[in-house]
């Protein structure tokens, strides 16, 4: 597939693009910063709707000119570009850029006839990550039916983006899938970060004791590219196991006492349920911090 990929210069985007290329997809990176990856790139301000629709409807490399058949079209759009969290700039600017860029990208895609759009939502939509103080989930494990009541401008932007995506899907019939991505971990970060999580599991409370390996996130994007006909859907994206070295029963006793437990959990099972993604798009994460640290 020919894929218009926004945000490929970022932490998650680089890994996703590499994975998609390994599966044979032709990926064009759209960002404001060069990625250093071996793929064609355009530098675009996604908050400018004219730049977005222009980038999606132009040549991107000289080899495309040789066929003499006009500008090639895209089979799919993957939208990862965003201000990645609060407390980088102002809250309002985070909200503005994240919502406006998503509107512009999805609008351009559907107007140009792209029938598959995958966009990055977030674990923060459930409100827990950036809440002031301790916010308990309504139930565990958290699945996609859990209420999304954001407590910060980044999470607000992601909830708004889900509404925007659902609206575009309803009026066009395209497949538009949102990924509620948990804390993205690169392979080298297991040695750097996880010993502290083993010593102090409370460090992972705001991430619902979950994580997603950057390589498995790329796999999830590919699963979505290869699954047609779902209309609008959102998926939690996490690895199968927790990011702490205590059992699920111990997590419940220490951190979720009094919270409804909706299903019996395996000892290492993630509290950020990925069962919907497994069932509907064939997501099968392959990596674990335990493979590195034992």
Description:
The chain is an alpha/beta fold. The strands form 3 sheets. Strands 3-2-1-4-5-7-10 form a 7-stranded parallel β-sheet, with helices on both faces. The model has no long low-confidence stretch (mean pLDDT 98). 35% of the residues lie in helices and 16% in strands. It has a single domain (2-187, 211-240, 270-293), classed as Rossmann fold (3-Layer(aba) Sandwich), CATH 3.40.50. It is globular, with a radius of gyration of 19 Å. Helix 1 (11-22) crosses helix 6 (214-225) and helix 3 packs parallel to helix 4 (153-172). Strand 4 (76-79), helix 3 (91-111) and strand 5 form a beta-alpha-beta unit. It starts with a strand and ends with a helix. InterPro entries: Epimerase_deHydtase, NAD(P)-bd_dom_sf. Residues 5-222 form the NAD-dependent epimerase/dehydratase domain.
Q: CATH topology, anyone?
A: Rossmann fold
- The CATH homologous superfamily is named NAD(P)-binding Rossmann-like Domain
Number of helices: 9
> Largest sheet, described in full?
7 strands, parallel
Rounded to the nearest angstrom, the radius of gyration is: 19 Å
Number of strands: 11
Q: What letter string, H or E per element, gives the SSE order?
A: EHEEHEHEEHEEHEHEHEHH
Overall tally of domains:
1
Low-pLDDT residue spans: none
| Highest CATH level, the class | Alpha Beta
What is the overall shape? globular
Strand content: 15-25%
How does CATH name the architecture?
3-Layer(aba) Sandwich
What strand order characterises the main sheet? 3-2-1-4-5-7-10
Q: Summarize model confidence as the mean pLDDT.
A: 98
Oligomer: single chain
Portion of residues in helices?
Answer: 25-40%
Strand pairing plus helix content: what structural class?
alpha/beta
End-to-end C-alpha gap: 38 Å
